[in-house]
């Protein structure tokens, strides 16, 4: 029997390229090699939804689970790479560093925000997808993916050195090229996401496309085509590639 999925959230953080004609860049983080889940893989910032995240959800939000996911994505991005997206007012570097230190010392996120005069602005995040693979035998996540942008001058990551041991900005196309060459390791949901992100010329087109497709759980499934097993996802959720041979699909 598959375990119940753990609520989680992921932030796809985008910034403008270095010049006007450049493609947008995506923040990718490298998980510590010794971690039991996705050790050594390149992923987007994110993690579990904590109980405390629900206390920061707007009372009038139509979907409390979505709201808590947005809070978790914001919190995890601060913890892992020291970047503050979805905070109001937008903090300067000193305030953001102080917030992160307070959180690292064990203060609950809600209390740390209040201590630094900050609040959550969940409107800064746009829902993008929701992945819930069923193949993981021990740890299964129901991960909500969100899009957000950050100014290039405020986008230098500072890794936590624990779960996250590296972080870099690259275009989605470059990330796929590096994965194909073996320079980085990405798993099936990350590859499908990068293929979709590679279609966008800028953040505006990314958010417009995200709003054009429904958000529902993506549970990859296996089918056989001409005797070859493929790992597939639905073809009505905006992904340009929806199948990959099981033999090449990296699932964990």
TrEMBL record:
Keyword Hydrolase annotated: yes
Domain Nudix hydrolase: 4-192
Keyword line: Hydrolase, Magnesium, Manganese, Metal-binding
CDD domains: NUDIX_AcylCoAdiphos_Nudt19 (cd18870)
InterPro entries assigned: NUDIX_hydrolase-like_dom_sf, NUDIX_hydrolase_dom, NUDT19
SUPFAM superfamilies linked to this entry: Nudix
Protein name listed in UniProt: NUDIX hydrolase
Protein's organism: Sphingomonas yabuuchiae
